[in-house]
Specification:
The complex is a heterodimer of chains A (169) and B (100). Chain A has 169 residues and is an all-alpha fold. Among the domains of chain A are: 1-80, NADH-ubiquinone/plastoquinone oxidoreductase chain 6, subunit NuoJ (Four Helix Bundle (Hemerythrin (Met), subunit A), Up-down Bundle), CATH 1.20.120.1200; 137-169. Chain A has six helices and one strand. Chain B has three helices and one strand; from the N terminus they run E-H-H-H. Chain B has helices at residues 4-24, 28-53, 56-87; one strand at residues 2-3. In chain B, helix 1 runs antiparallel to helix 2 and helix 2 runs antiparallel to helix 3. The termini of chain B are far apart. Classes of the chains: A mainly alpha (169), B mainly alpha (100). At the A-B interface, helix 1, helix 2, helix 3, helix 4 and strand 1 of A face strand 1, helix 1, helix 2 and helix 3 of B.
């Protein structure tokens, strides 16, 4: 059961990621990225991270991807054209990526002491997570709220700066 | 029973695919999506190691990565909108000057 779930959703992940690369229209890439993120949520559940699975669906597949599709539609982005830059990036980039993937795979396969995942391992409950988050890591949590506030202000300032300049002229 | 290394290999593969997308794609929005894909790949290995060592803090790290990714997406897409207003293009090859 576990094996079937892992193979199916890992396959969805990889297929979505490859489809993201092959599609030339950004909206198709965005939709395949949603497939990747939702399948990752299932993998999080298999690893016993129930809160993160929910947050993955809500924050990533929900909020962030809605933002992406919204921007793609707002800017009316069309198909991308192949240029000299993409060709040179292929010539230099693909061997580098293959080397990095090879190094990572070798390190992972040679690592000692990695265990196995079973479905009976139990889940990390949201209560456990929040105990650590709100006791030991309260300061980072509060700092993050300031970061989000600054990000909101920055996004609003950036998105309306064009209008501001035009009206000041 | 699935070895931990399978999850890590999936994470490495997703990260590499994101890197390929970052290098090859020419649309600035798709390049940004590739960055999100890489963040997700690293999140998967965080969750895997949290499971391996029975540490809750690994999952909290993923939580913070998600928060920062949300903030980054908001600011990044605002920058993309500003760039599109100034240049009327989304091709990264034609966005090669920092001044307007």
């Amino acid at each position: 059961m576990h094996l079937i779930l892992f193979i199916v959703f890992a396959g969805f992940c990889l297929a979505g990621a490859i489809n993201l690369l092959l599609q030339s229209h950004p909206i198709n890439s965005a939709l395949s990225l949603i497939v990747v993120m939702t399948s990752l949520a299932v993998l999080y559940l298999l690893l016993g991270a129930e809160f993160l699975a929910a947050a993955q669906v809500i924050v990533y597949a929900g909020a962030i991807m809605v933002l992406f599709t919204f921007v793609v539609m707002l800017l009316n982005a069309g198909r991308e054209d192949r240029t000299l830059g993409s060709r040179s990036a292929r010539v230099v980039g693909f061997p580098a990526v293959v080397v990095i993937l090879g190094v990572l795979a070798t390190v992972i396969l040679k690592a000692q002491g990695l265990g196995v995942v079973t479905l009976s391992d139990g889940i990390t409950s949201t209560a456990d997570l929040s105990t650590v988050l709100f006791r030991e890591l309260l300061l980072p949590f509060e700092v993050t709220s300031v970061l989000i506030l600054i990000a909101i202000l920055g996004a609003v300032a950036l998105a309306r700066s064009g209008d501001g300049e035009r009206t000041s002229k | 029973m699935i070895p931990i290394s399978w999850y890590l290999l999936l994470s490495a593969a997703l990260f590499s695919l994101g890197m390929v997308g970052f290098l090859v794609k020419r649309n600035i929005v798709t390049v940004f999506m590739s960055i999100e894909l890489m963040l997700n790949a690293v999140n998967l290995s965080f969750v895997t190691f949290a499971h391996q060592w029975h540490m809750v803090k690994g999952q909290i790290f993923v939580f913070f990565v998600m928060v920062v990714a949300a903030a980054e997406a908001a600011v990044g897409l605002a920058i993309i909108i500003a760039v599109f207003r100034a240049r009327s293009t989304l091709a990264v090859d034609r966005i090669d000057l920092m001044k307007l």
